[in-house]
């Protein structure tokens, strides 16, 4: 009987035994068998460094089993002679249970004829080699239909496979750092992608995506995702919660149908590379001014020509009690949450707009667009159009007629 897993052999008398190596478990093949000319059953532990392996007698030689985490593929077998702990990890839980059961029977002296023994021969290099970290699939023929993906994968690419949905087997690969599903037919993202706690890069270009799930924005991806490519899809907008992915450094949104960018873009404080070329953006959100980018590409968007003299006035005078209370909550940074306020009020507060004076406004405001030179937010700017322009329209909000009048005076003076 054989079991592949990671093994660390720790001596209870010495600091460590040979398998520990740099304080880490080594990939190993465990074999259960009877050496020629002997009656008892042995445990053979073979690693890449020691393929002939180390042998341990089992009959009446086990002091204790530690199986509390066996469902997670972990267990420890404590031997009497030598005084070592054989620590197993990253094993298939079902196989591990069967193996431990056989080890227990061998310890009890069960008739060897009834045990599932294997030949005690040196392990092959392929059986104890370093776990597979990277897997690249570039055609439907190469896609594994009957075999599982290696549990150890950190980089998985499955492109040009005509996938209509994300394979749920991929979502069990908890060590994934890079997932590339570009050039497929994926229409929707499952919320369980957020369970990939180590995921740093997600490539989804050239699919059929129409939306980005809010659940992904509030998942553990907030703390890990640094690169996201959503280009060449069919998205018209991204949710406000998208800006909770605060570790994003590189964001690609080219060749979609975006009519607006997320309202709170300024919250993406780590963002350095942004491309949203060839969309349908008429203007940029007010929060866009807070970005500090190395590279920005907004080529091919139909940015409108700003006209601050024709504002959109949604100002209610006098202010409603709700507006006044909401403004005070934001301006004085009063804590709020779903445990204190109805959810729709929390959503309204989250969507508050910032006036040029620094104060907040919610549903009562004056809105207009102004021209912004994109070099104010990015070191390198791809031309917005074929005319050599690097300017775009950006939204601007005012909490009162006074603030709008002051802005208008400055605008008219600067254009004289």
Q: What's the SSE blueprint?
A:
Layout: E1 2-11, E2 26-33, E3 42-47, E4 54-57, E5 62-66, E6 75-79, E7 84-89, H1 93-107, H2 125-128, E8 134-137, E9 155-158, E10 178-180, E11 201-203, H3 214-217, H4 221-224, E12 227-229, E13 250-252, E14 273-275, E15 293-297, E16 312-313, H5 321-331, H6 343-350, E17 353-354, E18 360-361, E19 366-373, E20 378-382, E21 391-398, H7 401-414
Parallel strand pairs: 8-9, 9-10, 10-11, 11-12, 12-13, 13-14, 14-15, 15-20
Antiparallel strand pairs: 1-2, 1-7, 2-3, 3-4, 5-6, 6-7, 16-19, 17-18, 19-21
Characterization of the model:
With 416 residues, the chain is an alpha/beta fold. The chain folds into 3 domains: 2-20 and 43-123, Roll (PH-domain like), CATH 2.30.29; 134-280, Ribonuclease Inhibitor (Leucine-rich repeat, LRR (right-handed beta-alpha superhelix)), CATH 3.80.10.10; 312-374 and 394-414, no CATH class. Helix content is 14%, strand content 24%. It is built from 7 helices and 21 strands. It has helices at 93-107, 125-128, 214-217, 221-224, 321-331, 343-350, 401-414, and strands at 2-11, 26-33, 42-47, 54-57, 62-66, 75-79, 84-89, 134-137, 155-158, 178-180, 201-203, 227-229, 250-252, 273-275, 293-297, 312-313, 353-354, 360-361, 366-373, 378-382, 391-398. The strands form 4 sheets. It has a 9-stranded parallel sheet with strand order 8-9-10-11-12-13-14-15-20, with no helix packed on it. A hairpin with a 5-residue loop joins strand 17 (353-354) and strand 18 (360-361). The N and C termini lie far apart (89 Å). The mean pLDDT is 89.
